[in-house]
Design brief:
The chain is mostly helical and 161 residues long. It has helices at 13-24, 32-39, 45-57, 78-92, 98-107, 111-124, 127-130, 138-141, 150-155, and strands at 61-66, 69-74. Helices cover 53% and strands 7% of the residues.
């Protein structure tokens, strides 16, 4: 089975390449033919069109009618898209697992990222920064102590893997 997938690209690579081409256009909407040209890859225009249509269905790009087809624009910049993907993954978790998911995410952060997150939470006036319990209590049960949740997640023996 590994041999059959040897020539395949990693999941999401084409979407990432198409988005990169759109971001490089600096606010100018691109048609599938223009994206294909900018990628410089041996991709069929129909493949690029399919990728753009999927990105549109996901809400990652907007499109406007140009002749018989469409021209596409990214809806968000790269950091905005990454944040949206993180929220989407969090939303996939069960309501009672959100605290666990967040605690494990935070426990996997390096010191620099942890500091950035703490600073951002302080700027937002987050209840977690003030030391108050989480809204649903799930984070407290999972050991999120208003700080990083690091020690508690690791203590529980089920830290990020």
């Amino acid at each position: 089975m590994q041999e059959a997938n040897a020539g395949r690209r990693p999941s999401g690579e084409l979407e990432a390449s198409v988005l990169a081409a759109l971001w490089a256009a600096d606010g100018r909407a691109l048609t599938p033919a223009e994206v294909q040209r900018d990628l410089g890859a041996a991709l069929a225009r129909t493949t690029v069109t399919t990728i753009l249509a999927r990105l549109h269905e996901k809400g990652s790009v907007s499109r406007t009618r140009v002749g018989r087809g469409y021209a596409y624009l990214p809806v968000q910049d790269p950091p905005g898209l990454a944040a949206r993907r993180m929220r989407t993954e969090l939303d996939k978790s069960k309501d009672n697992d959100r605290g666990t998911v967040l605690a494990r995410f935070v426990s996997g952060l390096g010191p620099d990222d942890e500091k950035v997150l703490r600073d951002l939470l302080a700027q937002a006036g987050s209840p977690a920064q003030a030391g108050s319990p989480a809204e649903d209590g799930a984070a407290a049960e999972d050991g999120a102590d208003g700080g990083t949740g690091r020690a508690a997640s690791r203590r529980g023996g089920d830290a990020c893997t």
